[in-house]
Specification:
13 helices, globular, 388 residues, D-amino Acid Aminotransferase, Chain A, domain 1, Rossmann fold, seven-stranded mixed β-sheet, Dna Ligase, domain 1, alpha+beta, six-stranded antiparallel β-sheet, 17 strands
Length: 388
């Protein structure tokens, strides 16, 4: 049986570059070699695509802050289907043989052309310039199958401001929030601080477009508010300010396209001195947090988590996979959707694969299912009319 080439795409121009290497390593190890042939492509922080040596990725363990792409990886070009000179029409997607020919005829012996008609890209690009719809748009233009949400759903899921407004419209509960832009803070820091303070203290300040708790601050008093806004706005042009809730952190994994399914819920129990699920608690401090799967919840609450996860998935136009994070108010028992992650972590501690494994789907089968869903979506796109 002919194997499908799976391009594992990782790294990227984001503050989560290093975490991406950890995720890519586990996707690579979980790939079914009877069905799939992997190709490792890393994107460095300058945006260059490079073929990554297997041994370098397999060595990506431990503290993500110390991880790097290989320095001498062969540079890769990403061909989008060229126009035919005599007609101006787009050519058919490149076959693997054409890709090989393009590689051999390249003007640089150090450059390799990729993306064949039957390839599937598995993006493990956490954060901006990867999880936000940019790469997804490129892959759709190239008519290549890829794992995860489309360019629109990816962009929505990444932008916590837009996602929360859409969830409110869909009747999904979210905690009270404000949005402060870089322009707001530049024009009048006191006014920006006043608007944010309307939520009361303590509160959380985070970049609207980021993940892995990068740039997130817990603000306990007015004196720390403007520095927290400056920190968040160092990573994005919008800062999301949220009312702090004394809550348990519940997570649920969603898998599917038109008929998404939700896993059993799990819980993150934070022990780190930051007092919340910070970057250090997630990836640096080995004792910073613990997971409990399944979460200790009444059956009605667990069912509500799963139903809201699927409702969120559909409201934000997601596909393939997503992790939905909740706050469960310790006093009232109210549930709030905190955020979604359209390219959830696949590290050794990541909840998405662990939740599915606990739900009866081992990581090898999960990765295969995600690739099958990507192929299914490509077939649906190719069936659409492009002429009138």
């Amino acid at each position: 049986m002919k194997k499908t080439r799976v391009i594992i795409l990782f790294g990227g121009r984001s503050a989560e570059h290093e975490v991406s290497l950890l995720s890519a390593r586990n996707v690579f190890l979980a790939l079914d070699r009877d069905r799939f042939d992997p190709l490792l492509i890393g994107i460095d922080k300058q945006g260059r695509w490079r073929a990554e040596p297997t041994e370098n990725l397999l060595g990506a363990t431990g503290d993500p802050r110390h991880l790097r792409l290989a320095a001498a990886g062969r540079e890769v070009t990403v061909p989008v289907r060229p126009e035919t000179p005599d007609t101006g029409l787009m050519t058919s997607p490149r076959e693997p043989a054409q890709v090989a020919a393009a590689a051999s005829s390249s003007s640089s012996e150090d450059t390799l052309a990729i993306l064949g008609r039957d390839d599937v890209v598995f993006p493990v690009l956490h954060g901006t310039y990867g999880e936000d719809g940019t790469v997804q748009g490129l892959l759709e233009l190239a008519d290549v199958a890829y794992v995860g949400a489309g360019h629109l759903g990816s962009g929505i899921g990444m932008d916590k401001d837009v996602a929360k407004r859409l969830l409110q419209q869909a009747g999904v509960p979210v905690v009270p929030f404000r949005v402060i832009t870089a322009g707001d803070l530049r024009r009048s820091p006191p006014e920006a601080a006043r608007r944010a303070s309307e939520l009361g203290f303590p509160l959380f300040v985070k970049p609207a477009n980021a993940g892995s708790s990068v740039g997130v601050s817990k603000v306990k008093d007015p004196a720390a508010l403007i520095p927290a806004l400056q920190t968040a706005l160092g990573y994005d042009v919008k800062a999301l300010v949220e009312a702090a809730v004394d809550a348990r952190e519940i997570e649920c994994a969603v898998l599917g396209n038109d008929e998404p399914q939700a896993s059993i819920p799990g819980e993150i129990i934070v022990h780190h001195r930051d007092g919340f699920y910070s970057y250090e608690a997630k990836y640096v401090d080995a004792d910073g947090a613990a997971t409990k799967i399944p979460a200790d919840l009444p059956a009605e609450t667990a069912a509500r988590v799963r139903a809201l996860s699927v409702q969120t998935f559909r409201a934000l136009d997601l596909a393939g996979m997503a992790r939905v994070d909740f706050f469960l108010d310790r006093r009232s028992g109210d549930l709030y959707v905190n955020e979604v992650n359209t390219i959830p972590g696949f590290t050794a501690i990541s909840m998405y694969p662990k939740l599915w494994e606990a739900s009866g789907l081992p990581v090898k089968d999960l990765v295969s299912r995600l690739i099958d869903l990507a192929i299914e979506r490509r077939a649906a796109r190719r069936a659409l009319k492009t002429t009138y």
